[in-house]
Design brief:
The complex is a heterotetramer of chains A (about 200), B (about 375), C (about 110) and D (about 230).
Chain A lengths: L1 H26 L3 H21 L3 H25 L12 H23 L15 H9 L8 H22 L19 H4 L2 H8 L1
Helix pairs in contact in A: 1-2, 2-3
Chain C lengths: L1 H9 L4 H21 L3 H26 L4 H31 L13
Chain D lengths: L10 E6 L2 E6 L9 H24 L25 E4 L14 H5 L5 E7 L6 E9 L8 H5 L5 E4 L13 E3 L3 E2 L3 H6 L2 H6 L3 E2 L26 H7 L1
Antiparallel strand pairs in D: 1-2, 3-6, 4-5, 5-7, 8-9
Classes of the chains: A mainly alpha (about 200), B mainly alpha (about 375), C mainly alpha (about 110), D alpha+beta (about 230).
């Protein structure tokens, strides 16, 4: 009884926290704060996984999502200098569109969730030793196994890694002639301040 | 109160159980006792943390002094024993400065993230058969995940300081930690493969016949070395202290921190060293298992004279000394050398090692294979 | 004390509560996807949606199927999210180098 | 530097900004075989670790001195420079004859040698040897410049004071001719030689502020004449 009371309290705390933080992710104008809020949402999701007896998944969630993806996002934010300035407010049209679509989706999904369906009579025991079970399933090539998707995912990750490197690689600048800091006559035009340049052209 | 203390003492005599297990057992019948256990564990870990910080900082200063032909702190207390305490008091009394135009909230949050990640790892380390706060069936994964989580503290701290050096240090640190995490995890996976479990207690118990470092014909040694190098890089210690290299970046990501918050970063750094040492000794050196050789019963009985906690302490001190020895011997690497070491050397070695390890496991090709 | 505990325990979350929570997060992510202007912000909203989808798989696994198939789907989702983040970040960095902005309303390369 | 191939250094001509300049090609750095570098790296790491461990295990190599406790047994290296001192000969005469070579040699004007005409000898002799420790860099140029070995760098290092103005010293305790000059005189005149006492420095100092005993504040240009009178 105490255990289920604890579960209840934790679930509702996590639920409220997750909703608030998810709203922070999409509404804050400081992108880095959004990233921190996203990290907190993912952390709370890991907590939910533990409530759902999926400890291994919780570990993977923290390892990959927080240790990898959020750090990558923070890197992206810093490299694109998005953190230095406030993001512009979305236009009213976008705001309206976003909230209408979001609310409509919520309404539709809730309709589906609360629609009458066959009652779940069987009481399922959580899987013991999920690490072992997941490992066996992932490498099982029988009809119940997931070995093909597993291999495909590894291919996808490899392709993504190579693609990321190729896209983000610094393209070497075309070989430039030796510059002398603006002393040569041809370069004066580019090194002087703009106002002065305009005067000269007049 | 007396009753609770008595029960804790009595419980120590039971077959080994973690504190979390005892609390879970007691929860339906005796919630107060469970709460007392959990609270006691929390207070205990925090006290341990503080003491550990003090001891490690003192040890680092003394040992570094000896390596450099100096004496180290000698004035406060006999042989400078109270120097760290005095420094802590000084840090606590200092003004807590947040730079203007820094992101206040992030600046305040970052040290807690950094220290929190470290403290959370301390909870799952098996110190001795009787002293173990919590055991998880995903122990190794948990440890890796949480230590990857600490990088966020460094990144946020560096960015929110609104200082170029701090930002550079944070970015370097992020790149370094993410890269070296791969090698460290690959090295840990070898032991997981051997032990067949990710629970730290299970891994310790699987080494009853011999420690993993030498039971697997060299595979263990290679992964031990790879893990040691990679985790030294992960905790930003010299020779991998590029993120804070004081001769290049003043102090890197914590350049703008002062007072209590600086001491949080500082403490996290030193506790991280303990965490690495504790994990290395748990995974490769048998944790609290005494040094046993196969079936030489007489020899093993002599080794059993020292209790488990003592063995753990000895191993951890040895690794910590090794880390300090590294620090005061080697010069700092350059950024490109750092990346080369990881991606071109450690990572291929790690992959090949994992492959060889899987063959060792497949054909049960251990020294002293009897007990597994 | 026991009464209060009993009362709290009687509200123990079931399938529906978990599903509603995941849906709420999904819809928040969806509206973020439509309102955000910064490309990294959009990526973060997409991560929210992926995360809630993974959560739903785990919920169904816990309450409807006696296996770990849902966990495996969640792991696949996490892997896809990682691949997406890698490629996304690469594209944003390249785009930023080229256009000095990653505001999606400013990027109209394919329009004319 | 063993991994740099110096046999491969070549000169070539390269045109940079329209000019042809000779350029030395950088010697190629020999990289090791990928598999050979791992054991060699460990070997070199072990070499370094062995060295530091040797120092760790030999406490006799510790060079730290526990200063205030070991004051009685404190030993300085011969060439340690702590303060400037004037040499005296066996009879107690200063060997400085006021030639001002040190004053000219001093790179930052930390030495002022005041001389006067000797009453008995009729030659230039030392009046006051003023040394400003606050601006001295202990470069030893004065000692090297001295033609008569009258200066030395001493080992008295406990010179800390609470006011910078107290760091200006008069080095000689008496003014008068050198021993050599006195030796040239005959018995009678030698008796007339009087060694005038010189106390601590009490001249003007380069910093304004509160008055200290024996120390006068800075002399500003406007007040110069007034001050001169008192001197």
């Amino acid at each position: 009884m105490i255990a289920s009371a604890l579960t209840t309290v934790m679930f509702y705390t996590i639920a409220v926290g997750m909703t608030v933080l998810a709203l922070t992710v999409i509404f804050t104008r400081k992108l880095l704060r959004a990233a921190v809020a996203l990290m907190a949402v993912l952390m709370l999701t890991a907590g939910l996984y533990i409530l759902l007896n999926a400890e291994f998944l919780a570990g993977v969630q923290v390892l990959v999502y927080i240790g990898g993806i959020v750090v990558l996002i923070v890197f992206a934010i810093m490299l694109t200098r998005s953190a230095d300035l406030l993001e512009d407010h979305p236009t009213t049209k976008r705001m309206l569109l976003g909230s209408v679509v979001g609310l409509a989706m919520l309404f539709a999904s809730c309709c589906a969730i609360f629609s009458p369906r066959p009652a779940n009579t069987q009481v399922l025991e959580p899987v013991k030793d999920d690490v072992h079970a997941i490992g066996m399933k992932l490498l099982d090539y029988g009809p119940e196994g997931f070995v093909l998707p597993f291999e495909l995912i590894s291919l996808l990750l490899l392709a993504a890694a190579i693609g990321g490197i190729v896209i983000a690689r610094k393209i070497p600048a075309p070989e430039q002639p030796f510059t002398s800091g603006g002393d040569l006559p041809g370069e004066v035009h580019f090194t002087q301040p703009r106002l002065q340049r305009e005067e000269e052209t007049k | 109160m007396h009753e609770i203390a008595l029960r804790i003492l009595l419980a120590a005599g039971d077959p080994p159980k973690t504190i979390a297990e005892r609390a879970t057992e007691a929860l339906p019948t005796d919630p107060l006792f469970a709460i007392a256990l959990i609270g006691g564990a929390m207070v205990g870990v925090l006290t341990f943390l503080t003491l550990l910080g003090l001891v490690l900082i003192y040890a680092e200063r003394k040992i570094s002094a000896r390596f450099q032909c100096r004496l180290g702190p000698m004035r406060v207390g006999p042989h400078g024993l109270l120097q760290t305490v005095a420094d802590t008091l000084k840090l606590l009394c200092k003004e807590d400065i947040v730079p203007t135009r820094a992101d206040q909230a992030m600046h305040l949050l970052a040290p807690f993230l950094s220290l929190g990640a470290t403290v959370l790892v301390l909870l799952v380390v098996p110190y001795s058969p009787l002293l173990h706060v919590a055991d998880m069936n995903i122990g190794v994964l948990y440890v890796t995940a949480i230590s990857g989580f600490g990088v966020m503290g460094i990144l946020l701290g560096g960015w929110s300081s609104n200082n170029k050096w701090a930002l550079l240090g944070a970015m370097r640190s992020g790149a370094q930690i993410i890269s070296y995490e791969i090698s460290a995890t690959l090295a840990l996976l070898v032991v997981v493969l051997f032990a067949g479990t990710m629970s730290l207690r299970g891994i310790v118990e699987s080494q009853e016949a011999g420690w993993w470092i030498w039971r697997a014909h060299g595979v263990g040694i290679v992964s031990f070395i790879v893990y040691l190098i990679a985790s030294t890089a992960e905790i930003n210690r010299t020779p991998f202290d590029i993120p804070e290299g004081e001769s290049e970046l003043t102090a890197g990501f914590h350049a703008e921190y002062s007072g209590l918050r600086f001491s949080f970063f500082f403490l996290a750094e030193f506790i991280n060293m303990f965490v690495v040492a504790a994990l290395t000794s748990t995974l490769f050196l048998g944790g609290w298992m005494p040094f046993h050789v196969g079936n030489f019963t007489a020899f093993n009985q002599v080794m059993d004279l020292l209790p488990g906690g003592g063995w753990f302490f000895l191993k951890v001190s040895g690794i910590i000394f090794l880390l300090m020895w590294f620090r005061w011997t080697f010069p700092r690497l350059r950024v490109d050398q750092l990346m080369r070491l990881e991606w071109k050397i450690l990572l291929p070695i790690g992959f090949v090692n994992l492959l060889v390890a899987s063959f060792v496991v497949l054909y049960n090709f251990y020294l002293f294979p009897g007990n597994n | 004390m026991t009464d209060i505990l009993q009362k709290i325990a009687s509200y123990e979350p079931g399938e529906t509560q978990f599903l509603v929570l995941a849906t709420v997060i999904f819809c928040i992510g969806m509206s973020g996807l439509l309102t955000r202007r910064n490309a990294v912000g959009i990526l973060m909203s997409a991560e929210l949606m992926l995360n809630s989808a993974a959560l739903m798989f785990v919920v169904f696994n816990r309450f409807a199927a006696p296996s770990v198939d849902g966990h495996i789907m969640a792991i696949f989702i996490i892997a896809v999210a990682a691949a997406e983040a890698v490629v996304g970040m690469a594209i944003f960095v390249a785009l930023f180098r080229y256009r000095q902005t990653i505001d999606v309303t400013q990027i109209t390369l394919l329009r004319d | 530097m063993s991994n740099v191939d110096f046999t491969d250094v070549r000169l070539s001509q390269q045109s940079i900004a329209g000019q042809t300049v000779p350029v030395a090609l950088v010697p190629r750095i020999r990289t090791q075989n990928y598999f050979a570098q791992v054991p060699s790296a460990f070997k070199s790491l072990w070499k370094g670790m062995k060295l530091t461990m040797w120092y760790f295990l030999h406490p006799s190599t510790i060079v730290t001195k526990q200063y205030p406790e070991n004051r009685a047994t404190l030993k300085f290296p011969e060439r340690y420079r702590a303060n400037l001192q004037l040499n005296q000969d066996d009879n107690g005469y200063y060997m400085c004859n006021g030639c001002k070579a040190c004053e000219r040699a001093c790179p930052n004007a930390s030495i002022i040698v005041k001389t006067r005409k000797g009453a008995v000898t009729g030659k230039n002799e030392l009046d006051a040897y003023v040394w400003r420790m606050d601006s001295c860099t202990f470069c030893n140029a004065c000692v090297m410049a001295c033609p008569s070995d009258a200066l030395r760098m001493g080992h008295e290092f406990e010179c800390a004071v609470y006011d910078r103005r107290l760091l200006i010293y008069t080095l000689n305790r008496h003014a008068g001719p050198t021993g050599d000059q006195v030796a040239k005189l005959d018995e009678e005149t030698r008796k007339q030689v009087v060694l005038e006492k010189r106390g601590p420095y009490d001249g003007p100092v380069p910093l304004a502020g509160e008055a200290y005993p024996n120390i006068r504040p800075i002399v500003l240009p406007g007040q110069a004449t007034e001050q001169e009178d008192k001197v």
